[in-house]
Amino acid sequence: MSQNILITGAAGFIGGSLLAELVSRQNGPIKTLNISAIVRSEEQAQALAKLDVNVIQADLKDEKSMSEVILRNEIDIVVHTASSRFPTMVSYMIKALGQRRQVSGKETYFIHSSVSTIFSEEGGWPYGEVRDTDPIFAKEKEIARGHPVRDTEILIVEESKAQGVTSFILAVPTTYGRGRGEWRKLSVNMPAYIRTSIAQKAVYKFEVDGHPPATHISDLVAFYVLLIEKILQKEQIPSGEQGYYFVTAHKAPWWAVMQRVAEALYARGLVDEPQTRVWPSYDVAADTLGFPRIFMKAIGTSSGDLVAVKSYRLGWQPKWDEERFLNSVDDEIQSVLDLDTVKPSLFADPASTS
Q1: Could you report the per-residue pLDDT of 13-58, keeping only the tens digit for each?
Q2: Is residue 36 located within the same domain as residue 156?
Q3: Average of pLDDT values for 326-339?
Q4: d(Cα 280, Cα 261) in Å, to the nearest integer?
Q5: Angle between helix 217-232 and helix 13-24 axes, rounded to 10 deg
Q6: What is the CB-side half-sphere exposure of residue 133 using CA atoms within 13 A?
């Protein structure tokens, strides 16, 4: 029996790359999916029109709109890549999936794309090393509310349980590489540093050397596909309170990365020196890079001792490691020079069309 899947953020880096992979699958359980994709603007809808999918232009923050999208298109699985925050947004989708489950009698699923920085000291995580097999939900509830990403995760677990929806939360790390989507093919983090370095004619690093978890976009997409296949095959895998998955392939030694960027940009004549400088402050860095000040320290210096266990147990086999990542820095620069034409939207209101 075929199932219907909805991808939010389908014009984005992760959502677009996942959509491209699903569409390209010619065998296996994925080929039985009926795919719908949500975008924000008419221009994005036109870009995705060439694909053999149902493209929907909708407001994710409008409850009536999202309910109609899910019920009218008989959606069984939602993969939410549009934003890691905005609890009300995910609440609308989960409630609609609950209604879909009642009407159809079929199981419904919600896959949420979160961020790994909330499991770092800079992101407000007080417990140190964390494995995705730990009681993460219980630990998150012990932390004071107020962080939009963590509040969203708590709501997902609680609302999904109330609605009878099976939920999964993926802690997405720093993601790099050239995406395969029809609209945005670049991530936010690395391109921002490269773009800013070229504009400033200098490469800056932070006074603290972060070592955040990282994953190439192809490896990240491979895990999404693996998880979707497990769902389609009706395999019993951890979900709900036990449904946290760390999709971490390796660490990104940030000072080493910035040094590689400095050397590569200097070789191209795009910066004045092959060494890095230190940002004068986090606020200056945030304003220059285009990131919110409140998140800058966590984005720029976080490490986080995350240990992925369950993702590997499911059979995930990432192909990229730290050495390969460091050796690909010049490719990242070339991608920015080739493709940096779409305004980053990670911190934008998902309902906007900017």
Answers
A1: 999 999 999 999 878 899 999 999 999 999 999 999 999 899 999 9
A2: yes
A3: 96
A4: 19
A5: 60
A6: 8
Q: Give the alpha-carbon dihedral of 122, 125, 128, 134, to 10 degrees.
A: -150
Residue 23 lies in a domain: yes
**Residue 44 located in a structural domain:** yes
Place of tokens 């899947």: 5
Residue 295 is inside which H or E element, if any? helix 293-301
Helix, strand, or coil (residue 112): strand
Average the pLDDT over 204-223 and give the result. 97
DSSP annotation of 233 reads: T
Q: What is the dihedral of CA 283, 288, 289, 290, to 10 degrees?
A: 80
Is residue 121 domain-shared with residue 192, that is, in the same domain? no
Looking at the structure of the chain, the number of domains it has is 2
Which CATH number do you get for residue 157?
A: 3.40.50.720
- Residues in contact with 294: Cβ distance below 8 Å, sequence separation at least 6, in sequence order: none
Looking at the domain assignment, is residue 225 inside a domain? yes
Residue 192: inside a domain, yes or no?
yes
**Whether residue 233 sits in one domain with residue 91:** yes
Partners of residue 5 on adjacent β-strands: 35, 77
Phi, psi of 35 (to 5 degrees): -105, 130
Which domain, by its residues, includes 87? Answer: 4-175+214-246
Amino acid at position 278, single letter: V
Same domain, yes or no: 256 and 233: no
Mean pLDDT for all residues in the chain: 94
Q: How many CB atoms lie within 10 A of CB 297?
A: 18
Structure tokens at 16: 């677009």
